[in-house]
Amino acid sequence: MKIFVNKVTPDFEAFRRCILREGTPARVHHIELFQDEEIKAVVAGRFNLEDGLKRKDPFFDIRREIAIQRFLGYDMIRVRPPGFEFPLEMLAAKDATRVNGQVRAQRDWIDEHTGPIQSWAEFERYPWPDPANINTTGLEWLEKNLPDGMAVYDLTSHILEQTTWLMGYETLCAKIYDEPDLADAVFEKIGRLYLEYTRLLAQFSCIGVLWGSDDMGFRTQTLLSPEMLRDKVLPWHRLAAQVAHEYKKLYFLHACGNLEAIMDDLIEVVGIDAKHSFEDTIAPVTEIKRRYGSRIAILGGIDVDFLCRSTETDIRRRVRDTLDQCHPGGGYCLGTGNSVANYIPLRNYLVMLDEGRRYSA
Predict the structure, then answer these.
(1) Who has the most CB within 10 Å: 16, 131, 183, 260?
(2) Cut 0.85: pTM above it
C-alpha cells in the first residue's frame, strides 16, 4: 500500500484556528489522545524514523516522538514530565499476544472494588505527589528545540478517574453517602494537585493544549449523577480551563461514556474548547458534530471497533463521509474514537490517516 503521497507540514496555528472554528481549514488536521507504544515502535521501524538519532542522547525519546508524530502528520506531540505520579494498585494479566508484529504489553487495570485509600488513616499515609518534584528538563529543551509549526500537550485533570482509582469505584460510591467527608477530601486533594500541575504546564510557551482526561460515563449514562459531577468534578475542570485560557492555551476534554446530561455544563460552565472520545454505540461523531459543533470542536470519532474490523474500502468511505459532514467550517479533527490501541491493525490506522491527507472538500 502506497501511503502518504500527500505531504503534511505541521502547523499548530492552523490547527488552533480549526479548533476555534475560524473557517474551513485548508487541510484536514489529525489528532489522537495517544498511540500505544507497539504502534509507534512498528511505525518507527518500518519507516526508519530513528535513523540519525542517538540512543545515548538524553533527549532521544523526545526526538523520536517528534519524528514519529511529524511523519504521521500531527501538529502536536505529547510529553509527560516525570515526577508527578500517583502510586496505584494494579491488577495485571499476562498476555503474550503478538499484535502488529510486536509482543503486546501486559495489560493492567484498576480494581473497581477497592484501592489504596479506604480510610482517613490511609488518606494521611498515601504518598501524594509533590508538584515541586516535577522534572521539567524535557519541556525546557523543547522551548528551544521544538520544530516550527509544532506544539506540545499533556493529559491532566484526571479528577473522577483518579478518585475512583485510589478508592475503587464501588468504595467511592459508598463513601459518598457513608463517609462523605473522606470522599470530598480525596476529590479536593486530587483537584488541587492537578490544578498545580496544569498551572505549571501552562507557563511553558511550547505547550499549546492542556488536555483534561477524565472518563465520566459509560454507554447509557454518567458514572456519578450529573448533580454530583457538577458539585465534585466539573469545578476542577472549570478552574483548569480558566488557567489554560489565562495563558492563551486550548483546553480539551477526553471523557468516555454518554455525557449528554452534562454536555451543556462542559460547554457553558467548564468552558472546554473541544471534546474527545466517541463511540458508535452511543452516537456517531457526525451526530455529535451536528448537536454541538457550533459551540465547541469535536475530535476523532472513527470508532475503534470499526477501525479494527473493517476493510480498507470501508475505512476510506467512512473517513470521507465523516469529513464531508464535519470538516466544513472547522471545529473537527480526524482521529480514532478513543486512542490508537495496540490491537488496531497498523494498516487500518495508516489508511485512516492517508484518506485524511487525500481529502479535499
Answers:
(1) 183
(2) yes
The cell for 47 is 519507516
Identify which of 360, 356, 321, 361 has the alpha carbon closest to the alpha carbon of residue 29.
Answer: 356
- Residue 182 corresponds to which amino acid? L
C-alpha cell at 11: 502547523
SS (H, E, C) the chain: CCCCCCCCCCCHHHHHHHHCCCCCCCCCCECCCCECHHHHHHHHHHCCCCCCCCCCCCCHHHHHHHHHHHHHCECEEECCCCCCCCCCCEEEECCCCEECCEECCCEEEECCCCCCCCCHHHHHHCCCCCHHHCCCHHHHHHHHHCCCCCEEEEEECCHHHHHHHHHCHHHHHHHHHHCHHHHHHHHHHHHHHHHHHHHHHHCCCCEEEEEEECCCECCCCECCCHHHHHHHCHHHHHHHHHHHHHCCCEEEEECCCCCHHHHHHHHHHHCCCEEECCCCCCCCHHHHHHHHCCCCEEECCECHHHHHHCCHHHHHHHHHHHHHHHCCCCCEEECECCCECCCCCHHHHHHHHHHHHHCCC
255 CB-side CA count, 13 A: 28
R_g of the chain computed on alpha carbons: 20
Contact assessment for residue 203 and residue 247, using Cβ atoms and an 8 Å cutoff:
yes
Residue given cell 451536528 in the structure block: 290
Q: Which domains does the chain have, with CATH numbers?
A: 12-358 (3.20.20.210)
Give the β-pairing of 98-99 and 102-103: antiparallel
pLDDT value at residue 64: 98
Mean pLDDT score, 237-261: 98
Q: What does the pLDDT look like over 177-212, one tens digit per residue? A: 999 999 999 999 999 999 999 999 999 999 999 999
